[in-house]
Structures
1.
Amino acid sequence: MQDPLVLIIDDEESMRDSCSQILLKGRYRVETAPDGTTGLQKIRDLRPDAVIVDLKMPGISGFEVLENLRLIDPRIMAIVVTGYATVESAVEAMKKGAFDFLPKPFTPEELRMILSRALEYRRLALEAERLRREKKLLEDNVITMVSHQLRSPLVAIQQYFEVILADIAGRVEDKPKEMIRRASERLTGLLNLINDWLDLARIDQGRLVGKLKPLDPGKMMRKLVEFMTPLAKEFEVTLEWSGPEGPNFEVLGDEETLEQVFTNLISNAIAYNKPQGRVRIGLRADPDFVVIEVQDTGIGISQDHLPFIFDQFFQVSRREGKKMKGSGLGLSIAKKIVEAHDGRIDASSELGIGSTFTVWIPKVRREAEPV
Ligand code: ADP
């Protein structure tokens, strides 16, 4: 690796020379500039690791150099040097992005110490940035791998199973058919798990931010309840919806993922219910949030289990009642989606009596009406 490059910007030739000499004795490469304009040009051309800049210079001042440096590359470390060290100018320089402050006169040792601290800081910051980039690349690769190499062949197998089960490829005896039906069921479970995991990974990557638009949650919930009524009928459960609609209740949201949250909450409220049970869905607003509640008269969740239900893969044991196969990821996906909306999700429950899931989503902020 090359020795670090340090640029000294100072109008006093004696300062440039003495600093250069001090640094050239260490493992540094040194460049100098007699004024701010030349300094900025050299910053653009040479991309030094650190800049030592005098605050008080004719022409472009050290403060202006700092401002421009931050625009060119904020990772370049800046140390300011000045003869009129005041607290105000130090604070001002730090605000403009300087790493540290060196009041004149200073010893060679002080200069070397501050510089080596700045360069160590830079090394760590660059390393952290490199690791973040690598992590993102790795995650992207895993997501692509799971969706293509893993999911695609499983979908193909599932399609073959469907063809066999429908006797399209010729009649199949009952016994092997039953085996294939079970294999197909297990495969559906696995595909659901993979789809849920992909959703989770994609939300983790922050792909939702930027897709948020004003939407009417009352309208969305009414449509969703209509859509889920047949499933409720199958489970002999009644769905009840009441809630206002209209611009006063708009939230900033992504319709597709919010629908996923409430589909999950409502299907849980149906699946973990009792025959002749009820699911009540309501919407209200407080000054900052729209609050949506999904309340059921189902089996409930014990106080021991309640703190874990939003954890990935958490499922209460089968003995305690399970009518639909899930991945145990539904609620953790719901939580991630709600949090990506700057909202909150919570649950309360009483075993044998029922559960209530509550979601808060920020309302669209409207300018105050003129009086
Ligand atoms: P699953 O795919 O198992 O439904 P979820 O993440 O949606 O996964 O839920 C996690 C666990 O929380 C469920 O397995 C269930 O035990 C419990 N649970 C969720 N919703 C309810 C509910 N409305 N009533 C009772 N238990 C619930």
2.
Amino acid sequence: MEQSIESYIKNLVRDVIGQNLGGLELQCDRQTYVIANWKMNKDLNETAEFFQKINSSHDVSVVICPPTQLLYPTQLFIKQSGKPIGLGGQNVHWADKGAYTGETSGSMLTDVGCEYVIIGHSERRQYSFEDDELVNKKVQQALKSGLTPIICIGETLGQKSAMQTEQVLYKQIIGALKDIDTAHFILAYEPVWAIGTGQSATAELAQETHAYIRSILRQLMGQKAEGISILYGGSANERNAAEYSAMPDIDGVLVGGASLNAHVFDVIINAFAKGEQNS
Ligand code: PGA
């Protein structure tokens, strides 16, 4: 797809620049993403209807992550629509292949047209007991398969109240990126207390946290950190998207509930498209 070649080249340039000019200060052009995480929602008809209604935009990278059984038809709907929309999985197994009932491998995802995969979502960390070590194995597998991992991190309400946010995020980032020497990934800061609750983080709090996350990335990979997109997720919607898009370290959003309605999702996409044009 047109967009994937563009993002591949951008990532490549970003990596080469990061390696050659490691110590120098330079401003990198980060990609802006608006990503839909449909979770366990939508059937085939609803998906077809969504692609009839969605407008999308050439100014931001729009990615849809439907449930696994809808990946292939979604790829076809995207092609038919002719719109610049990417496709992502919601999960990947760490192994290449084998006796893992119900799981999906990296090559199965790319086979049906995926370029992205969500890894370490707090819902999976909770009900599938995914820890940082497993998240790291999945990130390795995604990269090996040619997928861009969308790595989710975030603190629970209890951890926030105990003022442990920075500690928690630090541990999750270090854990997820162990032995990873590329910048071909996206980070999504998703405070667990904000997911599906309507209690979104204020744009100021999200910006402050994203700046902290970028400072950790700088420690880990130097200048390459400037090119990594950090998305906000957690009750992001058509009403607060513009506020997030105005923040310098918020490079897009990972949207759950508000991504299910094409018109609502379009408003969010437009908020970031305008943000890009203004910057
Ligand atoms: P939400 O979900 O937008 O419904 O809060 C976001 C996510 O879980 O990725």
